[in-house]
Amino acid sequence: MRWVLGGLVLLALGLEAAWRWLPLPAALSAPVPSTRLLARDGTLLHETVNPHGSRGGLAPLAELSPHAVAATLAGEDHRFYDHHGVDVVALARAVWLNVRLGRVAFGGSTITQQLVRLCLPGPRTLGQKLREMWWASALERHWDKQRILEHYLARAPYGGQVTGLQEAALQYFGVAPGNLSLAQASLLSVIPRAPRRYDPRTTDGLEAALSRRRHVLDLLVKQGHLQPEDVARALEEPITVLPAAWPLAAPHAVMRLLREASGTNPREIVTTLEPGIQQRAETLVTRTVDELGVRGVHQAAVLVVDVASGSVRAYVGSASFQGALAGQVDGVVAPRSPGSTLKPLFYAAALDHNMTPATVLYDVARPFAAGRGQYLPRNFDGRQHGPVLLRDALANSYNLASVDLAARLGVGALPGILRDFGVLPLQVDQDALGLGVILGGVDVTLWDVATAYLTLARSGVAGSLRLREDAPTVAPRQVVSVGSARNITNILMDDVARSRAFGRQSALALPFEAAVKTGTSKDFRDNWAVGYSSRYLVAVWAGDFSGRSMTGVSGVTGAGLLWHRMMRSIHDQDPPPLPRPAGVMRPVCLLSGMTPGPFCSGARQEMFAQGSAPQHTCTVHQAGGVLRLEEVLVPWGVRAGLPVTAAVTRVKVLSPGEGEVFTQTSARGDSAQGVLLIAAAPSGETVSLVLDATVVAQGAGLVRATPVLEVGMHVLEARGANGVVDRVSFELRP
After folding, report:
1. 1 pLDDT tier (thresholds 50, 70, 90)
2. Which of 341, 488, 500, 642 registers the highest number of CB atoms within 10 A of its CB?
3. 556 and 654 in one domain?
4. Is residue 599 over pLDDT 60?
5. DSSP readout, 333-348?
6. 300: Cβ contacts below 8 Å, ≥ 6 apart
7. So what's the pLDDT on residue 667?
8. Higher pLDDT, 191 or 671
9. 246: in domain
10. Neighbouring C-alpha atoms within 13 Å toward the C-beta of 253
11. In the β-sheet with 677-680, what is the strand arrangement from edge to edge?
12. CA-closest candidate to residue 700, choices 686, 720, 682
């Protein structure tokens, strides 16, 4: 007998050692949760399916309803806190009942054994039962009771794809698991016993579940957890089970966040999205694309951003995520040509480099050096507007003036400006960028452009868009000065200044203050409109993901229309005024940007930072209506039929430029057979135009000629009376 007892003791000690020291199967580790994506108000946008094909996750016991925990223990394992993984009493009772019934109807499994079964599933055999008992005993040595119960309630099946009490509370009743009533909690507690039989979304299943629930409530009274009156109130409470719903709202934002969170398996991602604004944005995108579809606008993307926080309130990547025409492409992050929408960034930088809103820019056609060739930009309207003030150049989106501004900044400085605003992708070869980048010569994303405009909206402080509520705060960084940013805002909200190109009260005008810029890419493939009030920033792209051209749609009539509708929709009341630049108001001549003189024909008030107002009187307007123009502007003045003189200090060829190439119709508007030749000398001096060694014109001050030319290379000289010669070569091609 002593040997038997000794053997049993050794066996017990061996089992205890094995259970304590053998590692648990990996399947018993924390479950991989599904991920719930929520709007900022808690509205469910989407929930993923975990690797096991279900939805749910681990929740601390403190976050679960005490009613649900008590009901689960009462119905499944009321001696949970008394056994060590296997309840011998319950097991013996199950064996006795099964023998009496002649079939297996009772298992006697503890919650710990059920947890093992959920993690290590297998056929219902004696071997599987022994396996469950073994690992249940081991699990009790490794984990405390609270952890075991938490894991069971996180893994228990509640029907369909619903796993865990937390998910069941949300799916069936739309409440957090800690807010379940006794009636709801006790009903949910019975489902894991037989999820199909007790499915509360079917009539028979709900009836069976309610019947089983009554038994559980009686057990709770018997075990002293409830009073009879508690049960009576629970039975009187109406049960409303929500229909099954697995939404996919704001799909492009959801998919982006899931990609960014890949590998981390968060249980919950709370977005910054506002459901009401998101819904309005989706509706307006669909409506506008439907209206403009006949003109080739088949897709659009929209971002709505809270200016103060940078939080994204709406994120629409296409007109229809499930629709045809590449609806799952995300137009918010798809690189596209931005057209003129990058201009304000360079203009803001220019204001920080000693320019003012009254700086004169040259909106004239002329060649710019570009590598080994020439860059010949054109205006959207095909015209040249001569000398224009910086305010007018930006407000009317003049391309020629903008390239002039870019040239003054220096081509080498342009990539750095974009990077400062957070626009230029790191993979872009900045050495390959030329002056054309100011007109949209680099593909960027709507997200990045919105980020840049947020910087302008926040008085030059670097903007950072947030799509998650827990996104880290970015340290403030001043990209451009407060004054420069506010001046750009002031220009972009100036409906009078932009009227020459867009007219008054276009889609860019709103009943409240808003700054906005549009853009149209080459061949009308892309439309952009990005603008902001003091409260919201709205960025819009419209076009076709295939790159097909639109017909008769500009930034104003395409993306601008959607921008206008979106801005009106989200501003329930007028926002506060946009911040004004500080400084002094001074009158300026519209042609020179200087203080108006006695011969100036037009002037207006302009804002200047302290110390930057013009110090000189206009030198452009001369007596008799003559305009004394800088040499680069003279060809424009001559073509426009204006009485002009040239502000030169030596004999000089003013047109054409060195190395300029002409074809059938040049960017400068000259006939291929009649290139305009211009030379100038200081006032009172004589100058001769000599083409290919033949004098074609001669006179004092300014001379011109438009000879018929042969195809090929030509040499033009300006010869002064004192022997000074200026020489250029140009080419006429077929």
Report:
1. low
2. 341
3. no
4. yes
5. TS-B--GGGGHHHHHH
6. 285, 288, 289, 316, 318, 319, 331, 540, 541, 542, 543, 559, 562
7. 45
8. 191
9. no
10. 32
11. 652-655, 677-680, 702-705
12. 686
pLDDT at 572 over 80: yes
Cis peptide preceding 656, ω within 30 of 0: yes
What torsion, rounded to 10 degrees, do the Cα atoms 444, 445, 451, 456 define?
A: 50
Average pLDDT score over residue span 496-510: 90
Question: What phi and psi, each to the nearest 5 degrees, are found at residue 608?
Answer: -130, 140
Q: Where would I find the H helices in 370-473?
A: 390-395, 399-409, 414-420, 446-457
Same-domain check for residues 529 and 599 = no
pLDDT of the residue at 67: 93
Same domain, 549 and 629: no
CA–CA dist 97, 487 (Å, integer):
86
Tokens of 220: 């709770």
pLDDT in tens, 364-404: 998 888 777 788 899 988 899 999 999 999 999 999 999 99
Residue-number span of the structural domain to which 110 is assigned: 2-30+56-236
Determine if the pTM surpasses 0.70. Answer: yes
Same domain, 80 and 112: yes
Strand, helix or coil for residue 483:
helix
CA distance linking residue 44 with residue 275, whole number of Å: 10
CATH of the domain at 665: 2.60.40.10
- Per DSSP, 494 falls in state -
The residues pairing with 653 across neighbouring beta strands, listed in sequence order, are: 679
Q: Is residue 448 a part of any domain in this protein?
A: yes
Number of helical H runs and strand E runs in the chain: 21, 24
Neighbours of 408 (CB within 10 A): 15
Q: What separation, in Å, do the N-terminal and C-terminal C-alpha atoms of the chain show?
A: 118
Q: Which domain-ending residue is among 184, 215, 236? A: 236
State how many domains the chain has.
4
Q: Is the pLDDT of residue 673 over 60?
A: no
Shared-domain flag, residues 6 and 101 = yes
Mean pLDDT on 322-327:
73
Query: For the chain, what is the mean pLDDT?
Result: 88
DSSP for 136-202, please give it: HHHHHHHS-HHHHHHHHHHH-B-STTBBSHHHHIIIIISS-GGG--HHHHHHHHHGGG-TTTT-TTS
What single-letter amino acid sits at 569? S
Would you state the structure tokens that stand for residue 81, as one six-digit string?
């806190």
Same domain, 565 and 611: no
Residue 271 banded pLDDT, cuts 50, 70, 90: very high
Q: How far apart are CA 663 and CA 694, in angstroms?
A: 22
**Maximum mean pLDDT: which of 89-98, 214-223, 444-453:** 444-453
pLDDT, tens digit, 9 for 90 and up, residues 81-127: 888 878 777 666 766 655 566 555 555 688 888 888 888 888 878 78
Long-range contacts of 664-667 (CB under 8 A, 24+ apart): 664/734, 666/365, 666/376, 667/365, 667/367, 667/376, 667/377, 667/378
pLDDT of 39: 95
For tokens 């951003």, the residue is: 305
Same domain flag for 227 and 308? no
Concatenated DSSP letters for 522-556? GGG-EEEEEEE-SSEEEEEEEE-TT-PPPSS--TT
Confidence of residue 284 (pLDDT cuts 50, 70, 90): very high
Pairing of strands 644-646, 627-629: parallel
What amino acid occupies position 629? L
